[in-house]
């Protein structure tokens, strides 16, 4: 799979912006783990948030400075921008339970509503 | 307060942030461990920078991940820090549960202690050992774990590789099972099985070996085995072993091995060297098979065969003796029947006695065949080695058979190629027997057409000649599938043959054996309906070269009469060898007696010679009585009156000399004198003197030739040469039949004709000088010279069977001896006329165009 060189926005999401899941995936070129992570992310979103998600892919090989914004240490890393709180899932998303835990159950982890 | 509260809030936030960072760090570490991350972001002075993990370690990691073996990194305590994909599969446990777990939790209880030991040793260096893994589902898996020391972040750790050896263990177990089977098989085999090292020291022997030798398995090891070999067999065993070294495959040797009882038995020892890739012998595998019984059977068989051979030999000897014994009464029957036939008989009686004679003769022939066969079988047949004339011998045979050929209206001819030597050394009687048998068969099975005897020279080498004979006929032929059986004794081409044609079936077997004894072989080609052709080859000696012209030399003045006679014999097919020393019986004219037929006693133990003598003499119109030894001869002379006796010198019971002496003794009272002619195989001068000293009147050499015999009889009784031949016996050469001087029986062949011509030529050359000697002797009244010359001329014209010339020469010889010169002049004139006539006829024969 070829990833676009520029950060992209998934415009497939529609409806209430409050209900839209904004997911940002940090990658570094087309490494096997990054490709695997994007594939898995798309599958998960289609399955669980059909029509109300947006995926943003940021390639740090092109824009390493963007790593600072979300304090990215390892690649790939998925950042849930919305709904809040911001959550990070590190790795290639191969552990589906881990992914769902990180995305769907915001209350399962100590969080601070702002 | 608010400051404090703010500080607390600040602290809480910081605490929260630190927790968050810690969690992120944990998660990052876990993700790294899980291998879910392939790039890291590192803060540098130039800002964040991406490092792709794959850049540096991916190839190694991929290798490790791709390994079939399980691989893991353990810390000092045995906790799994890292593992590849194969290891969780092997343990049937999720990777997550493997990571961070203590390695010993995956081992069976028995293996744990050993593993601690391995871990301890691994800090020193590379080690490996076998363990048993316990999987999540409780299965035990045999593995080999190899461990190597490893330093991670300065802290000691161990890297292990886990190899599943389940398959290997299964294979090992299967191998052990099959090895056990093979070993059990080897132990239960009756053969001895041994394995030795490259130097021949035993490393294994099976149970039967141990049982047989009485040595323990331990005692059987090493090279003590040689002591078990029979001392006489050791060098052979070592030699065979040595030969096994030098070649591929199995070597074998038969040796005796000592049993625990101390007895030896024969074994067949077989050994096979096993070699490495370089051809060097690594070890030896072998067996020993007990062949004692086989050996014993073979020995017994050999002994049984010897016994059987001896018995067969004894049988043959018995047969030979019996045949010999039977011949004596047979001779009596034949002799007495002959005597009876000579008396006045009614027609009916004569017919019966002819029948008796015929039956007796065929019985004798049969007995002679059996005797010959038995002799050959008993290895007692010995061939004579005497000098003989081939053409003359073959001519006699042809003549013998011509009568039967004529009776059936068949043409019988003999032809010898010009290159075939005439003077040979061999056994003419046996050669004749072969030809007689083959021609006899041909006569039997041919109804019309011809039978041809041919001789060719196959090879002439120094003093050896290989001659090829053939006897062909235009008879019924022999089917191909019967031809081989023909040569077996007691067999004929068809069982019905015996009924139709008679015979014992021995003839061809005897002929075959005789030919073999003569160094040749007898073969047959035949086509049914077309005829048969028997071929045989024989090897003969060649005598030293004869004198250029024996007759010429014989005529030199100092040559004695007897030498002359011998010379004539050598140069002519028909000649005289007589030693004249008998006086004619008073009263009757000898030639008259000869013409009406003589009563002749033949004392001869050799059956062939008996038959030969009988046939020849009877054909010449004489009656013959044959006896087998000297005693019978004396008895026959005492009971009967004979005109002549032919006495074999060597006979059983009483030899010819003794018999002659006894006859002469009894004659001293009666005043009779029976002319006795000796027959002896020893053609030496001393023998002749002995014969004459013993009171014999003449002498003839064996094998007996008709011409010799008749000439000797003639000179012994002193008649002119009797013309005793039946010209109708042989289909005569038309050219020769015109000649009055050649007997048709003597000129049956071209060869014979050539000989006659040669003789004629010689006669014509020598005659003038002889005649002038005679003229001179008469003029000079030299009785000695006259007698010599007349005698010589008499012998020469005797060859041509011209009785008028012979008588003239004879008369001149007599008057020369008596020195009656008036009669001598008259006799000379008669002789001159006769000789002129003879010479004219001979010249006409030699040059027919001039006549």
Quick overview:
The complex is a heterodimer of chains A (114) and B (851). Chain A has 114 residues and is α+β, with helices and mostly antiparallel strands.
Explain what this protein looks like in three dimensions:
The complex is a heterodimer of chains A (114) and B (851). Chain A has 114 residues and is of the alpha+beta class. Chain A has a single domain (21-103), classed as Glutaredoxin (3-Layer(aba) Sandwich), CATH 3.40.30. Chain A is built from 2 helices and 6 strands; from the N terminus they run ββαββββα. Chain A is globular and about 30 Å long. Chain B contains 29 helices and 24 strands. A 5-stranded antiparallel β-sheet of chain B has the order 4-3-7-6-5, with helices on both faces. Chain B has a 5-stranded antiparallel β-sheet with strand order 9-8-12-11-10, sandwiched between helices. Chain B has a 5-stranded mixed β-sheet with strand order 14-16-17-19-18. In chain B, α18 (561-571) packs parallel to α27. Chain A binds chain B through residues 28-29, 31-34, 60-61, 64-65, 67-68, 71-76, 88-95, 112, and chain B through 16, 21, 24-25, 27-28, 30-32, 34, 36-41, 47-50, 52, 54. β4 of chain A pairs antiparallel with β1 (39-44) of chain B, so a sheet runs across the interface.
List keywords for this structure.
heterodimer; A: 114 residues; alpha+beta; Glutaredoxin; 5-stranded mixed sheet; 2 helices; 6 strands; 23% helix; globular; disordered N terminus; disordered C terminus; B: 851 residues; 5-stranded antiparallel sheet; 51% helix; rod-shaped
Largest interface: A-B, 27 and 22 residues
**Total helix count of chain A?**
2
Task: Let me know the number of strands of chain A.
Answer: 6
**Helix and strand composition category of chain B:** alpha+beta
Q: Figure out the total of helices of chain B.
A: 29
Q: Estimate nothing, just give the exact number of structural domains of chain A.
A: 1
The overall pLDDT average of chain A reads: 73
Q: Which CATH architecture of chain A?
A: 3-Layer(aba) Sandwich
Can you list the strand order of the major beta sheet of chain A? 1-3-2-5-6
Q: State the CATH superfamily name of chain A.
A: Glutaredoxin
In terms of per-residue confidence, which ranges of chain A show pLDDT below 50 for 5 or more consecutive residues? Answer: 1-17, 105-114
């Amino acid at each position: 799979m070829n990833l676009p060189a520029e950060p992209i926005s998934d415009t497939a999401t529609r409806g209430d912006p409050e209900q839209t899941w904004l997911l940002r995936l940090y990658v570094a070129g087309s490494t096997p783990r990054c490709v695997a992570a994007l594939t898995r992310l798309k599958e998960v979103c289609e399955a669980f948030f059909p029509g109300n998600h947006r995926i943003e892919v940021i390639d740090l090989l092109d824009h390493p400075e963007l790593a600072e914004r979300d304090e990215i240490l390892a690649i790939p890393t998925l950042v849930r921008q919305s709904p809040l709180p911001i959550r990070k899932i590190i790795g290639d998303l191969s552990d589906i339970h881990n992914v769902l835990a990180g995305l769907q159950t915001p209350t399962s982890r100590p969080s601070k509503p702002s | 307060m608010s400051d404090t509260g703010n500080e607390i809030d600040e602290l809480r936030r910081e605490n929260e942030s630190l927790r968050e960072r810690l969690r992120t760090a944990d998660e990052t570490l876990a993700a790294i461990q899980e291998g879910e991350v392939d790039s890291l972001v590192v803060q540098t002075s130039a800002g964040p920078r991406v490092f792709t993990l794959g850049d540096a370690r991916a190839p190694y990691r991929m290798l490790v991940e791709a390994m079939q073996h399980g691989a893991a990194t353990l810390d000092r305590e045995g906790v799994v820090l890292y593992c590849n994909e194969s290891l969780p599969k092997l343990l049937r446990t999720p990777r997550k549960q493997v990571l961070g777990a203590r390695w010993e939790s995956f081992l069976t209880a028995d293996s744990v202690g050993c593993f601690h030991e391995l871990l301890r040793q691994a800090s020193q260096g590379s080690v490996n050992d076998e363990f048993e893994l316990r999987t999540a589902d409780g299965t035990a898996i045999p593995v080999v774990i190899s461990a190597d020391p490893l330093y991670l972040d300065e802290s000691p750790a161990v890297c292990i590789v886990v190899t599943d050896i389940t398959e290997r263990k299964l294979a090992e177990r299967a191998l052990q099972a099959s090895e056990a089977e093979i070993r059990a098989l080897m132990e239960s085999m009756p053969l001895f099985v041994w394995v030795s090292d490259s130097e021949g020291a035993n490393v294994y022997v099976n149970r039967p070996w141990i049982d047989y030798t009485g040595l323990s398995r331990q005692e059987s090891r090493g090279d003590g085995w040689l002591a078990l070999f029979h001392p006489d067999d050791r060098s052979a065993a070592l030699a065979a072993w040595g030969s096994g070294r030098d070649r591929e495959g199995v070597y074998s040797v038969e040796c005796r091995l000592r049993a625990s009882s101390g007895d030896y038995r024969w074994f067949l020892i077989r050994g096979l060297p096993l070699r490495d890739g370089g051809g060097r012998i690594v070890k030896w595998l072998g067996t020993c098979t007990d062949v004692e019984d086989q050996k014993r059977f073979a020995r017994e068989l050999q002994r049984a065969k010897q016994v059987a051979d001896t018995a067969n030999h004894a049988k043959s000897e018995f047969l030979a003796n019996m045949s010999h014994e039977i011949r004596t009464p047979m001779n009596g029957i034949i002799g007495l029947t002959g005597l009876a036939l000579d008396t006045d008989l009614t027609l009916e009686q004569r017919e019966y006695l002819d029948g008796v004679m015929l039956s007796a003769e065929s019985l004798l022939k049969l007995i002679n065949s059996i005797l010959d066969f038995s002799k050959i079988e008993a290895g007692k047949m010995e061939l004579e080695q005497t000098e003989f004339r081939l053409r003359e011998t073959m001519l006699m045979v042809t003549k013998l058979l011509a009568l039967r050929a004529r009776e059936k209206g068949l043409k019988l001819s003999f032809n010898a190629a010009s290159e075939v030597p005439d003077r040979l050394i061999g056994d003419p009687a046996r050669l004749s027997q072969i030809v007689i048998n083959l021609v006899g068969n041909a006569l039997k099975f041919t109804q019309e057409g011809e039978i041809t005897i041919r001789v060719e020279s196959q090879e002439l080498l120094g003093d050896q000649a290989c001659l090829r004979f053939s006897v062909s006929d235009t008879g019924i032929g022999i089917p191909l599938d019967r031809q081989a059986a023909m040569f077996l004794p007691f067999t004929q081409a068809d069982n019905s043959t015996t009924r139709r044609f008679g015979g014992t079936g021995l003839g061809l077997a005897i002929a075959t054996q005789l030919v073999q004894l003569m160094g040749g072989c007898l073969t047959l080609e035949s086509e049914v309906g077309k005829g048969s052709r028997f071929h045989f080859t024989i090897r003969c000696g060649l005598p030293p070269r004869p004198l250029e012209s024996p007759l010429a030399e014989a005529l030199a003045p100092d040559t004695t009469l007897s030498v002359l006679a011998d010379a004539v014999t050598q140069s002519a097919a028909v000649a005289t060898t007589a030693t004249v020393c008998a006086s004619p019986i008073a009263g009757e004219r000898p030639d008259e007696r000869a013409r009406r037929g003589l009563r002749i006693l033949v004392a001869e133990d050799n059956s062939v010679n008996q038959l030969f003598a009988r046939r020849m003499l009877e054909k010449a119109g004489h009656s013959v009585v044959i006896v087998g030894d000297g005693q019978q001869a004396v008895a026959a002379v005492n009971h009967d009156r004979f005109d002549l006796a032919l006495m074999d010198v060597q006979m059983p019971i009483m030899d010819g000399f003794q018999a002659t002496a006894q006859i002469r003794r009894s004659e001293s009272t009666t005043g009779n004198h029976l002319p006795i002619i000796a027959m002896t195989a020893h053609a030496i001068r001393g023998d002749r003197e002995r014969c004459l000293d013993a009171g014999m009147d003449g002498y003839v050499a064996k094998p007996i030739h008709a011409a010799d015999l008749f000439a000797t009889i003639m000179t012994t009784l002193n008649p002119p040469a009797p013309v005793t031949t039946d010209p109708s016996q042989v289909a005569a050469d038309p050219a020769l039949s015109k000649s009055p001087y050649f007997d048709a029986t003597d000129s049956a062949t071209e060869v014979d004709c050539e000989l006659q011509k040669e003789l004629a030529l010689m006669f014509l050359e020598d005659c003038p000088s002889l005649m002038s000697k005679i003229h001179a002797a008469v003029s000079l009244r030299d009785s000695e010279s006259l007698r010599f010359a007349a005698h010589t001329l008499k012998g020469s014209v005797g060859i041509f069977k011209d009785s008028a010339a012979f008588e003239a020469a004879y008369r001149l010889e007599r008057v020369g001896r008596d020195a009656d010169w008036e009669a001598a002049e008259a006799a000379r004139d008669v002789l001159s006329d006769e000789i002129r006539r003879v010479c004219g006829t001979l010249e006409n024969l030699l040059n027919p165009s001039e006549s």
